Amino acid sequence: MVASFRPQQDFSDFLGTHFIYTYANGWRYEWYARNEGQCDYRIHHGLVGGRWATRQAIGLVRLSEDLQFQANWHEPTGTCVSLFFDLTRRRLQGTAFFPQWIAGDGQHPERAICYQNDFIEDMRRFRDEGPAYPYVTFSEFATITYMKNVGTDNNEVISMAPGQLPDGYTDRVS
Questions:
Q1: Which of 25, 31, 32, 67 has the fewest CB atoms found within 10 Å of its own CB?
Q2: Known active-site residue 29
């Protein structure tokens, strides 16, 4: 018999938290734990800098009694994302599996730079036109520089494109 381990799935220390973090490669992201089944995010720097989405469906798990959580999702672009949050150490590990049409040689990442919610059908069409395989995997560690609980389902947290934010917005620390 194999023993199973599953920590209590209490998300009260995580839900409603707004994060800004920077990966070791310099890419800067913003992420909000909207509720148990959804996140909002903005990408400030990186391959698809300027992209943003709200109410993205996620799978969420608590990995330990410590403040460690994992969020996973599959975007209409075909991109799969997995984020591991260590709130105590203010660290994050993120892995994204980008389809070829976004991250492959000679492809078109600019097609994904938009407010995803307004272009779902376009994202699906680009995904279906491909190419998708082989996926391009990016896996990086990040430092969480901003972390504040702003309550769940707060529509004001991520409500505009990255380019519409005031200068210094992502430089905040908390």
A1: 25
A2: yes
